[in-house]
Amino acid sequence: GAGVSQSPSNKVTEKGKDVELRCDPISGHTALYWYRQSLGQGLEFLIYFQGNSAPDKSGLPSDRFSAERTGGSVSTLTIQRTQQEDSAVYLCASSPYFRAVLSSGANVLTFGAGSRLTVL
Amino acid sequence: DAKTTQPPSMDCAEGRAANLPCNHSTISGNEYVYWYRQIHSQGPQYIIHGLKNNETNEMASLIITEDRKSSTLILPHATLRDTAVYYCIVRVVGIGGSQGNLIFGKGTKLSVKP
Q: What contacts B65, CB < 8 A, 6 or more positions away?
């Protein structure tokens, strides 16, 4: 597609339920990032995928959070046993493979519109 | 990646130039300076980036000091739609560099006023 697509755009769930958030990156972008943004706060890095390399999971806040990326394209962020503090906007971004833009540094991130999660 | 320091907020009159400063005194020779902005309720949007030369595109100009320890993003004729949080980020790119997570600080909240 033309941009990064995320779904659902809004999700309201009850505490303790599991949720899945989906991200469709720009076609051909091999790097994919997940961030979250709590109300009035900055962006918090969660996880990063690059091609077939092991993902950088250093930002995941707890073992209730996991993400996978199937076929090097679509990614799903799963939050198990949701808590109220998980309420936030979850943003996905993708970028082209850095070797292709080595000399210009232009491996910029394109963000989706986000998935707003509300845990009651 | 080097850390950046930005003022938390700035005001600018509509039609005037907005100059947003960023300090990155620990920047390394292979780190680029990137600027993104986030308009309310939207995902961040790339604006411009540079290594050591000044850069200009249709959105903005980026002025990087000779020692690369600071930079300024210039919006030449700010409009109300430029009201947003502006993030300055430095990042290593290229073979051998980390293309890992992009660290966003708190940014500068720019308010363009009529």
A: B71
The Cα B81–Cα B39 span in angstroms is: 8
Question: Which token pair is B38?
Answer: 């986030």
Question: In angstroms, how far is the first alpha carbon of chain B from the final one?
Answer: 37
B6, B9, B98, B102, best to mutate vs chain A, most A CBs in 10 Å:
B102
Per-residue pLDDT of chain A (120 residues; tens, 9 = 90+): 579 999 999 999 999 999 999 999 998 888 899 999 998 888 899 998 888 788 888 899 999 999 999 887 899 999 999 999 999 999 999 988 655 555 566 668 899 999 999 999
| Amino acid at residue number A90 | Y
A105 to chain B, any CB pair closer than 8 A? The answer is: yes
Chain B: residues touching A (Cβ < 8 Å)? 32, 34, 36, 42-46, 49, 51, 93-95, 97, 99-107
Residue A47 CB burial class (10 angstroms; 0-12, 13-18, ≥19): buried
Return the pLDDT at A109.
87
Among B61, B56, B72, smallest CA distance to B21 is for B72
Quick check: B46 and A42 CB within 8 A? no
Which member of A59, A91, A101 has the closest CB to residue B101? Answer: A59
Give phi and psi for A50, each to the nearest 5.
-135, 110
Which class for B14: exposed (0-12), middle (13-18), buried (19 or more C-beta within 10 A)? middle
